[in-house]
C-alpha cells in the first residue's frame, strides 16, 4: 500500500517530463533519480521562456525591472522552501562549485590556525573542498569515520573528534551511494557544543528531492543543493549562506556591493525554475494538508514524499505477493542494512554471484534504468571498507510506483537465480 491514491499518482506523474519513457531508449522505468531526478514540465517551459529573453537585470527598462522582480520572488520562494531564518540565497555553476566556494570562503576567512573537520561518508564535493582548502590554509583536516554497517555518521562520532579550535565543519545530509540520511541538527549541535564559532557547511544535494529541509532547525552557515536533482534542470546550483559567513572576506568585484555573493549577470531562468520547484511542493502539500501557509504545505509535501518512498523501498527490500524482495535474494548485501530508518528512497546492493555491471546491464535490457557505483573517487569511501568493487544503486522518487518496483523485483528474481 503506497501513500498516494491512484488519482493523485496520475496527477503527479503528469507533471513530469519523460516519466515512463526515454527519448532515446523508449519505454523505461526510471530508478536513476540520485543521478538526476525527472524534470517538471513547468521547469522545461520556464527555461524555454527565459532563454529567449535578451534583456538583463540592472538596466533602466521594463524588462530588466521584471527580471529583477522574478529573481527576488524566487529568493523569497527559496526562503520558504528551505525555512531559512535570515541569510541569503544565490545561484552558481553547480552544487559542487558552490560547495567549493562556500568552503573556500569559510576556511580562508576563518581565524588563523585551528582545524577543519568532515566525515568519511561525505561525497567528494565537500571532502575534496575541505581537504584542499585546509591544506592551503595550513589547517589540519580531521576525518570522522562513519559506521560501515549503517552507512551513517553520528553526532557522537563528530564529538569524539572535535576540539575547541575547529574552525570549519562539513556535514553530508544524505548519501548518494547508500541513501542514508544523517541527523544534521544533532551533528551541528555537537560541533557547536565544543567549538561555538565554527562555520558549518552542509551538502544537501542528495537530500533535497525527498523534502523536509529545515535550515532554521539547524545551527549552520551554509546549505547547498543541485536543482537538477530536485526536479529542475542542469546548469546551476543553489546555496544558502548565513550572515556571519557573508561577513567574511568574499571574492567579488572591487567596489561592488559588500554582501553580494553573485558574480556577473544572473540567469533569471535558473531562479524562475526553482520557483517552479517550490510551487510544485506547495501544490503537492495542499493535497495532504489544509494549511493556509506555503511553508505548512511544503512540510506536508515532505512528509507525504517520505511516507510514499518508504512504502516503495519496503516493497523493494521485503517483496510483494510472490515476488521476493531484494533483501531475500541469495548472496545479497544491502548497503546500510535492510531496515535502516535513515533510508531516503534509495537501495544500494551487491550480489556475490552476479557482477554489478552485469545486473545494471540486464536491468537496462528489461527497460529498468539503474546505475553502477564503483569503488572510485566518488564511492570508494563507502564501498572499499565493505570489500566491494562495485554495487547497484536503485534510486527512486515519489513519482515512482509500486508497479515499477514490482517490475524490478521480477527482473531481479531472474537475474539472481543460481
Characterization of this structure:
The chain has a seven-stranded mixed β-sheet with strand order 4-10-9-8-7-5-6, with helices on both faces. The protein has two domains: 6-40 and 295-415, Aspartate Aminotransferase, domain 1; 45-280, Aspartate Aminotransferase, domain 2, CATH 3.40.640.10. It is globular, with a radius of gyration of 22 Å. The protein is α/β, with parallel strands linked by helices. The mean pLDDT is 96. 39% of the residues lie in helices and 15% in strands. Helix 6 (155-161) runs parallel beside helix 7 and helix 10 packs parallel to helix 13 (402-415). The chain has helices spanning 6-14, 41-51, 62-82, 95-109, 124-137, 155-161, 184-194, 243-246, 268-286, 294-318, 356-365, 380-383, 402-415; strands spanning 21-22, 26-27, 29-30, 88-92, 115-119, 141-144, 166-172, 199-203, 222-225, 237-241, 332-334, 346-351, 368-369, 371-374, 390-395. It is built from 13 helices and 15 strands. The longest helix has 25 residues, at 294-318.
What key attributes describe this structure?
418 residues; alpha/beta; Aspartate Aminotransferase, domain 1; Aspartate Aminotransferase, domain 2; 2 domains; 13 helices; 15% strand; globular
Helix content: 25-40%
Main beta-sheet strand count, sense and barrel state:
7 strands, mixed
The CATH homology group name of the largest domain: Type I PLP-dependent aspartate aminotransferase-like (Major domain)
- Average predicted local confidence, pLDDT: 96
Head-to-tail CA distance between termini = 31 Å
Low-pLDDT stretches are none
CATH third-level topology of the largest domain: Aspartate Aminotransferase, domain 2
Q: Provide a count of the helices.
A: 13
CATH class of the largest domain: Alpha Beta
Counting structural domains, the number is 2
Overall geometry comes to globular
- The radius of gyration is 22 Å
H-E order = HEEEHHEHEHEHEHEEEHHHEEHEEHEH
Instruction: Give the name of the CATH architecture of the largest domain.
Output: 3-Layer(aba) Sandwich
Structural class: alpha/beta
Amino acid at each position: 500500500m503506497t501513500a498516494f491514491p491512484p488519482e493523485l499518482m496520475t496527477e503527479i506523474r503528469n507533471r513530469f517530463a519523460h516519466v515512463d519513457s526515454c527519448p532515446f531508449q523508449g519505454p523505461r522505468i526510471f530508478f536513476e533519480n540520485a543521478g538526476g531526478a525527472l524534470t517538471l514540465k513547468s521547469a522545461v517551459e520556464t527555461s524555454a521562456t527565459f532563454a529567449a529573453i535578451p534583456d538583463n537585470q540592472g538596466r533602466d527598462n521594463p524588462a530588466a525591472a521584471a527580471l529583477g522582480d522574478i529573481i527576488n520572488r524566487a529568493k523569497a520562494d527559496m526562503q520558504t522552501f528551505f525555512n531559512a531564518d535570515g541569510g541569503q540565497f544565490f545561484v552558481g555553476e553547480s552544487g559542487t562549485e558552490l560547495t567549493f566556494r562556500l568552503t573556500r570562503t569559510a576556511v580562508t576567512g576563518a581565524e588563523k590556525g585551528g582545524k577543519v573537520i568532515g566525515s568519511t561518508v561525505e561525497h567528494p564535493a565537500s571532502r575534496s573542498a575541505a581537504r584542499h582548502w585546509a591544506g592551503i590554509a595550513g589547517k589540519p583536516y580531521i576525518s570522522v569515520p562513519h559506521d560501515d554497517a549503517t552507512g551513517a555518521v553520528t553526532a557522537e562520532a563528530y564529538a569524539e573528534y572535535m576540539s575547541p579550535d575547529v574552525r570549519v565543519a562539513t556535514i553530508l545530509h544524505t548519501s548518494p551511494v547508500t541513501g542514508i540520511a544523517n541527523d544534521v541538527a544533532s551533528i551541528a549541535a555537537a560541533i557547536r557544543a565544543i567549538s561555538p564559532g565554527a562555520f558549518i557547511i552542509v551538502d544537501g544535494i542528495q537530500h533535497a528531492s525527498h523534502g523536509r529541509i529545515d535550515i532554521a532547525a539547524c545551527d549552520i552557515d551554509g546549505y547547498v543543493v543541485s536543482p537538477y536533482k530536485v526536479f529542475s534542470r542542469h546548469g546551476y546550483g543553489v546555496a544558502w549562506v548565513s550572515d556571519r559567513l557573508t561577513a567574511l572576506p568574499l571574492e567579488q568585484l572591487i567596489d561592488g556591493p559588500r554582501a553580494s555573493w553573485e558574480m556577473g549577470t544572473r540567469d533569471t531562468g535558473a531562479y524562475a525554475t526553482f520557483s517552479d520547484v517550490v510551487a510544485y511542493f506547495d501544490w503537492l502539500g495542499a493535497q495532504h494538508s489544509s494549511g493556509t501557509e506555503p511553508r505548512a504545505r511544503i512540510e506536508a509535501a515532505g512528509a507525504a514524499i517520505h511516507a510514499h518512498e518508504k512504502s516503495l523501498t519496503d516493497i523493494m527490500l521485503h517483496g510483494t505477493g510472490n515476488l521476493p524482495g531484494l533483501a531475500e535474494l541469495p548472496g545479497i548485501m544491502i548497503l546500510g542494512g535492510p531496515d535502516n530508518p535513515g533510508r531516503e528512497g534509495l537501495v544500494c546492493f551487491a550480489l556475490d554471484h552476479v557482477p554489478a555491471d552485469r545486473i545494471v546491464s540486464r536491468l537496462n535490457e528489461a527497460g529498468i534504468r539503474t546505475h553502477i557505483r564503483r569503488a572510485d573517487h566518488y564511492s570508494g569511501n563507502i564501498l572499499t571498507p565493505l570489500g566491494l568493487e562495485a554495487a547497484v544503486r536503485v534510486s527512486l522518487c515519489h513519482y515512482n510506483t509500486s508497479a515499477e518496483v514490482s517490475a524490478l523485483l521480477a527482473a531481479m528474481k531472474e537475474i539472481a537465480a543460481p
